Amino acid sequence: MTATVRLVRLILRRDRLRLPAWLVGLVGLMAVSAQSIHSLYGTDEAARAYVATVGDNPALVMFAGPGYGFDRPTSGVVLVNETMLWLALAAGLMSVFLVNRHTRAEEESERADLIRSTVVGRHAPVVAALAVTAGVNVAVALGVAAVTLAFGFPVAGTVALAAAIGLVGMAFGATTAVAAQVAGTGRGAVGLGSALLGLAFVVRGVGDVRAPALSWLTPFGWGIGVRAYAGERWWTLAGLVGFIGVGTATALALSARRDLGRGLLPERPGPAGAGAVTLHPVGLAWRLQRGTVLGWAVGVFLAGLVYGSVADDVETMMADNPQLADYLAQIAGASLAQAYLATAIRMLGLVVGGFAVASALRNRSEEAAGYAELLLAAPLSRWRWGLAHLAVTLVASIGLVTLGGLGTGLAYAQTSGDAGQLVTMTMAALASAPAVLVLAGIATLLFGWVPHATPAAWAALALFAVVQLFATVLRLPHWVTLLSPFGHVPSVPAEPWRILPLVLLGLLAAALLGVGLVGFRRRDLAAA
Hints:
This protein is an all-alpha fold. The protein has helices at residues 4-14, 18-40, 44-54, 58-64, 75-101, 104-108, 111-116, 124-150, 155-182, 186-209, 212-215, 219-224, 235-255, 281-309, 314-319, 322-329, 336-360, 362-368, 371-376, 382-416, 421-430, 433-449, 456-470, 478-481, 499-522. The relative contact order is 0.09.
């Protein structure tokens, strides 16, 4: 464990901007959610109306939880059902990225060789990464507790909710520490950690719908099993602590059984020669991103199915909740079902915006790893290399938006009996495509001119999401909503199409992409 404290200080120094961004984002999301739910479901009647409409819907149980406390609903029960799993999922993702960044990714970049050549214990890097991850999750839990208590939610339930979110995040940090010992590359480790996170979420969902015993095989099941605001069961938190301890011990034991820079699983050798597709820049870019694209495609399509499955029941859901009905009605002068679908499409667009940013920044990760330098040493221009990756980003982003609308339309057509909704919702989703491409343009602009500032693209996405989703709740002036590209997208199908704003957004996206590539041509290649 020698030099663990010094490594903790190094991690905090390197992530002095990244960690506060995660903290502010997660706590801010809880603050906005708590304020909204407190105002919409602050009475027992409103809470009972909520339970009456969502309690028996398997799709919502899959994505929200088993509904502990629905027999005696309160605003706290609604808060848990609406936010707990998603905040725990976000905390888990934060932990996956953080642990991988300071363990396996450090070995792949060979910085770990330099650090380990000094007086540093073998287990110190893993312990330091887990210690920082635990500290950030504790900070998130404290922040969640503080903002929730500020809106008057009961103390016991708030403590249980915050502790469960923090411990679930730590659990997936420990899981990623194990994955870092098993995988052969940093990208493989983060992929394995993220896959385990997604698998745990799906298994928990299937368990909550069909076989409750399955839920207890995942950290999510233990976290939500604390029953915050519904007769707390504190012993489930001890189960999460035990999971974290076993994961940490396993990671340390495995780290002593492998060579630095190599995983326990042997790397699968690739083909001896490149195929015809990968010899082309676009083919290579697709080969590098195809797994990510397919994963996002499945997730976006399933999310669309969930949104569309409840659209036909919106009128009933809002009958006993005039506050929420008023909120949706402010979107456009249309029926509640149309306003709901417009909101769902907007949310799917924001989700795909996350893919667009990640995909557009793949150029940056290839450059930082040194792969771009190798390719550009061949007869390959910077224009062709950059455009190849952007082509995948643009086509995949439009395809994902279409898939989200297709899933929404398919489910809504099934429940409403109107087959025409399949085409209507697919076309409505395409209205968000220019705004999504603007996000890709912002990421490309930063990559081209200030590559070390590319995380600002994620900050822009977070800002746009807050503006679009919570403008009414936060009583933001109209001009603030127009700062987001999504603020210029017509709320189809709740309002008519407006082509001019979409054309202007498309031109803005093209300009940002072009200027970004010009900047990349004019600067030196940058290291990590």
